[in-house]
Amino acid sequence: MKRFVLIALLMIGFVSIRQSQITQAKQDLSNSDVYLIEWSPDGSRVATSSFDGIRVYDTNFQLMGFFPNPLHYGYDPDYQAFGAFWSPDGTRLTAGAMILDAKTLQPVTTTKAYHSLAQWSPDGKYVSTLAIDYNSIERYDAQTGNLDRNISFDGQHLIGLPILSSDGSRFVLNELDAIGVTDATGKHLARYKYPYRVNALRLSPDGTRIAYQSTEDVPVSTPGSFPNPGNTGKGTLVHAFIIDTATGKTLMQSEPLNNFLAGFQWSPDGTQLSGMLGTDTMVTWDTATGQVIDSYSLPTGKMISAWSYSPYGARLTLGVRDLQDSGAIANLTSMPLSNFSQTFLDGKIQVIVPAPSAEKLESITQACSVQPSVEQLLKAQIDTNSLQAFTTEVSALTDQQIPPGCKADLLAVANALMAKAQQPQ
Fold first, then answer.
1. 3-state SS of the chain?
2. pTM
3. What is the pLDDT of residue 18?
């Protein structure tokens, strides 16, 4: 009840919140780590979630708005994570148990969810989260805030929020040593069982593939294993896998990894899969070949706290925080290394371009839907490798001529290619 009263106070007008702290926090990320990054569907804005609130930035990370977490500013030391997720049409954002107008960042409705709302239905009518007992998910009406239904999964205790497919027809869920696939009501359609632990599930954008990490305790002498941090007499064997959602057939298995993976992100077109290895390294696979095509590590003492692909698929945006003990160092000697990165907000945000190529530049140019004459000129500059002229031309385009998110991706890929060309061979 206390939580709901606090939310009601917030919606009345933030009367009791410490305004001086909030005003300072709007501009200041120095004391607030980013734990979630979400790009708007059109790529024009990015929302970052921190314990003190939600910030929305443009493509150059200029602040557009700030929404404070009321449970952080003097109310409750045990405040819940306060995650922001965009509605499919980009007009609304979740904020804990609330739904905000994405332009004004003012609450439009609230729910009785205990955990942060985290998953929109494809039509934007509903938003879901885990029930307080972890035995079902709660689906709320996004307009009224009323509970629409509870969805259970054969009475299972859930390990994280089941993943809803992009067409809303299936859920994928972690079952420790198995992966479950259910219909939209929670009825199992398939269960793929394994002789090892399964975690870090991520469904591909089209719903046809599932990425996951396998973790297996093995003899310490097993090739490819690394020392088990919890059992000195054992080794740990870790792989990244991709399977077919419909059949469970293995489509990709990585080489053994020398650290745990914290999770995965698919590129929007499904051609890349990026995972966080250890605490400070991003590794990107080509999902068709299973080959590592890019890797990027932070300096010692820094860790990756969040990461997200931009909607046009060129940029991988990283949240960065300080870390006293970075643990085991990833072995990148055999992996291609990123040669281009951008830093924003005093290092709290870094942007990399995994495996830049002229082909990627051309495909994004085509996706931008610019005027045919402009597209023809840009493609000609790509074909002749006139990248400096290309960046000058793209930079001059207005928001009316090219979507801002697409423009930012084109410039990032072009700059990454120019940086790559300057590297010694």
1. CHHHHHHHHHHHHCCCCCHHHHHHHHHCCCCCCCCEEEECCCCCCEEEEECCEEEEECCCCCEEEEEECCCCCCCCCCCCCCCCCECCCCCEEEECCEEEECCCCCEEEECCCCCCCCEECCCCCEEEEECCCCCEEEEEECCCCCEEEEEECCCCCCCCCCEECCCCCEEEEECCCEEEEEECCCCEEEEEECCCEEEEEEECCCCCEEEEEEEEEEECCCCCCEECCCCCCEEEEEEEEEEECCCCCEEEECCCECCCEEEEEECCCCCEEEEEECCCEEEEEECCCCCEEEEEECCCCEEEEEEEECCCCCCEEEEEEECCCCCCCCCCCCCCCCCCEEEEHHHCEEEECCCCCHHHHHHHHHHCCCCHHHHHHHHHHHHCCCHHHHHHHHHHCCCCCCCHHHHHHHHHHHHHHHHHHCCCC
2. 0.88
3. 44
